[in-house]
Write a structure and sequence with these properties.
35% strand, alpha+beta
């Protein structure tokens, strides 16, 4: 849960909201085939949590709040033959813009990890 203060009071935004927002933004970019869980713990957790759901947009997304700014880690799989540097730049820009426009929070860093090729 990410909590910040504005003139009217405190606002709390769940990590699940951020994960879905960031996951949908990343998956809409050209060349991204799916989101990938970063380690076995996250894989098992998502299987148990989303057993009936086929939506995997929140997998592979880790959002942290550091000194009032967000740091986002993405783990993705991309299509074979596409330019990795171009895709990661596109994802970084799209995710930063989407999160800042939807929440008003500053995104200090977006780390894109390419974990698989399809």
């Amino acid at each position: 849960m990410i909590k910040f203060e504005n003139p009217q009071g405190y606002i709390e935004i769940t990590n699940n909201y951020f994960a879905r927002l960031v996951g949908n933004a990343a998956q809409s970019c050209f060349g991204v085939t799916r989101m990938v869980n970063p380690n076995p713990y996250h894989s098992i957790k998502s299987i148990i949590k989303n057993k009936a759901s086929l939506d995997n947009s929140n997998q592979g997304v880790i959002v942290k709040s550091i000194n009032g700014a967000l740091v986002i880690d993405l783990h993705i799989a991309i299509s074979y033959g596409v330019n990795i540097a171009t895709i990661t730049d596109s994802i970084t820009n799209k995710v930063r813009y989407t999160v800042e426009a939807a929440t008003g929070l500053k995104v200090s860093k977006v780390n894109v990890h390419v974990d698989a090729l399809n």
